[in-house]
Specification:
By secondary structure, the chain is of the alpha/beta class. The chain contains 15 helices and eight strands. Strands 1-8-5-4-2-3 form a six-stranded parallel beta sheet, sandwiched between helices. It has a two-stranded antiparallel sheet with strand order 6-7. α4 packs across α5 (99-111), α7 (189-207) runs antiparallel to α8 (215-236) and α8 crosses α12 (304-315). The protein binds 5,6-dihydroxy-NADP and zinc ion.
Amino acid sequence: MLGDFTYCNPTKLYFGENAINGLRLQLPNYGKNVMLVYGGGSIKKNGIYDEVISILKECGKNIIEDAGVMPNPTVEKLYEGCKIAKKENVDLILAVGGGSVCDYAKAVSVSAYCDEDPWDKYYLRMEDVDNKIIPVGCVLTMVGTGSEMNGGSVITNTQQKLKIGHVFGDNVMPKFSILNPIYTFTLPEYQMVAGFFDIMSHILEQYFSGEDDNTSDYIMEGLLKSLIHSSRIALKDPKNYEARSNIMWIATWALNTLVAKGKTTDWEVHMLGQAVGAYTNATHGMTLSAVSLPYYKFILPYGLKKFKRFAINVWNVSQDDKSDEQIAVEGLKQMENYMRQLGLVMNLSKLGVKESMLDGIADATLIMEGGYKILNHDDIISILKNAL
Ligand code: NZQ
Ligand code: ZN
């Protein structure tokens, strides 16, 4: 571990079957006006909406509803939410949903009192927040993004064909999050496995970088093993509480800033996935699964030592008389088998990408500098072609 860092995570978590009691404990800390933010209605079908409403009423809150947050929330929706939050003088934004709802809540929280266009300020120019921030709390219903304990907020601008994430500081992270694994039981399988791969990708984005001996890499190998084990169980038995609760906990630790401390990180898979998302509006985890292997195969020669370690420590690949490259390649093969077992989308064409879109997607892909190879436009095109 070589880097200097400051670590602080201000999000208070309430985890487990009775986690919702934490909402009762937290609500008295905030003013009367609570903006209840949710998505397309899954929480009305599975009863979470009723549970949350009754607690809000019990605590004497004035409830302002902002529904219809779409997967991959748009900038237009953000502008709408800002108007409501300001007009209603909102004291707390309560996000009840998945990463999209939590991300949107954070975006409204920093944008409602922003004098300029928040898209330009926070997403294009990546500036810090210098205006009033409305506190956010989350009741998580979908596992994957880690949005429940981080400052990330991803917004899509469909007109500009850009999907951009701003990682805000600890002043924007949720003040509290309610994590009840049972809330995730109603997720359709497609969303469930997309979330599993999102978790894996978050870990790999932070694992495949650097050559130093770093405690975080050992933590990540443990998280990956636990994820692979529990996701195989959850696939066969989605209501297995032990597996689903482990996965919920791994997702939080995969992206709550801890494992990134003191090391370089990559995030190029997410940049590719986000560009694909801007063009297709596809499910986030599936954009990642479609590009990951072509990307990793491309950078393998530059990070051979780490890919070998990944194969041995995560996938139990035997070393026997094999070359480093053979071992590393076998690790990726095992990862591919696992991905196919989960039923993930393995090709961009399945997400609606056409060859004619590749130039645009490559232009929309931000180039990161923390991984094993800094890509250029031609590299990106070649990876995207292999992913088609
Ligand atoms: O809208 P509703 O009706 O709630 O349905 C949602 C949505 O259709 C459904 N769902 C959620 N919980 C459910 C449920 N359906 C049944 N039962 C439940 N318990 O699932 C669908 C997907 O939800 P969404 O919130 O979009 O999924 P996810 O959690 O994967 O969030 C994706 C967004 O997060 C961003 C992505 O880019 C994308 O915009 N990310 C945020 C990150 C962060 N904050 O750090 C990092 C990630 O890498 C990611 O980029
Ligand atoms: Zn992700």
